[in-house]
């Protein structure tokens, strides 16, 4: 994960702390779709799993994630 993605993840954590799961799910899925490396995608998916966002209706990453 690069510096800009880490900064966005911090913002997503703020969304989650404020109860804004839909905004966090949209933001994180957008980050996953735009990630350039598979390692970054994997790390971001792990963050989504940690916050139980994979099943959220607003989480649309564009590929199938196997739990």
Q: How many β-strand stretches?
A: 0
Number of distinct helices: 3
Percentage of helical residues? 55-70%
Low-confidence stretches: none
Shape: globular
Radius of gyration: 11 Å
Give the end-to-end Cα distance, rounded to a whole number of Å: 20 Å
Count of discrete domains: 1
Mind summarizing the main beta sheet? none
Beta-strand residue percentage = under 5%
Write up this protein.
This protein is mostly helical and 67 residues long. α1 (3-17) packs antiparallel against α2 (21-34) and α2 (21-34) packs antiparallel against α3. The chain has one domain (3-50). The mean pLDDT is 91. It has helices spanning 3-17, 21-34, 38-50. It contains three helices and no strands. The protein is globular, with a radius of gyration of 11 Å. The longest helix is centred in the N-terminal third of the chain and has 15 residues, at 3-17. The two termini are 20 Å apart.
SSE layout and pairing:
Layout: H1 3-17, H2 21-34, H3 38-50
Helix pairs in contact: 1-2, 2-3
Keywords, separated by commas or semicolons:
mainly alpha; 67 residues
Give a quick rundown of the structure:
Helices cover 63% and strands 0% of the residues. With 67 residues, the protein is mostly helical.
